[in-house]
Amino acid sequence: MAPELPDLYEETLFCDMSPTQAEVYEKEKNLIRNRLLDTSAQIAPGQFSIIALQGLTRLRILANHPAMLDPGYEGDSGKFEQICMNFETLRAEGHKVLIFSSFVKHLRILANFFDDQNWQYSWLTGSMTPAQRDAEITRFNNDSNINCFFISLKAGGTGLNLTAADYVFIIDPWWNPASETQALSRAHRIGQDKKVFVYRFITSNSIEDKIRKLQVEKSNLASTFITTGNPLSALSLDEIMASLG
């Protein structure tokens, strides 16, 4: 009989954009909305959903941190501040945290800040060799000075045993909840002897917030994403435009 796993607690943390970030986001949102309105009657629905997904992906990035699109951006990010604040508290208490993102650039922005603070971390992305990957896993599991493991969702969604961690941050949730379940299972698995806490960071009043609500209303979004790579193909024009707010 398989041993019983410790309790798993999941919470969504809503983050307000900083004023500078919100200004950049709103400007881009208006440009995308106008572009979609101009092209909606001129192209086939399938092509429209592809163009819309490109636009919404840009908004998703801005909702996380505008520096991911504009390296010259010198403003701040509400989500960035909340991630760092939560991590600093957990680090001071001796916890180990897995930080998952769909964007390596997002992880790099956080890692640069960690470097400035002299906070040690492990790092795993798809560009690493199996030997490098194994070395980072060993460091994280065995070194008490390393409290964070930055992991790209595609590279680290499966096959990792990271039960040294008792907190999981999913910092840019999106269309496919199954990938998030795989991520949190890196810590919440056989061999774990601690309660595991999962935080999903969502930027309030952004495309992330809208997509979460759509996922509740339309259960087929995730399956459409898996089969086509574009969940917007399951939405009407009005629903796509409504997601822009």
UniProtKB/TrEMBL annotation:
Pfam families: Helicase_C. The keyword Secreted does not apply. Signal peptide: none annotated. One of its GO terms (molecular function) is hydrolase activity. SMART domains: HELICc. The keyword Aminoacyl-tRNA synthetase does not apply. InterPro entries: Helicase_C-like, P-loop_NTPase, SNF2/RAD54-like_C. Residues 79-238 form the Helicase C-terminal domain. Coiled coil: none annotated. Keywords: Hydrolase. This is Helicase C-terminal domain-containing protein. It comes from bioreactor metagenome.
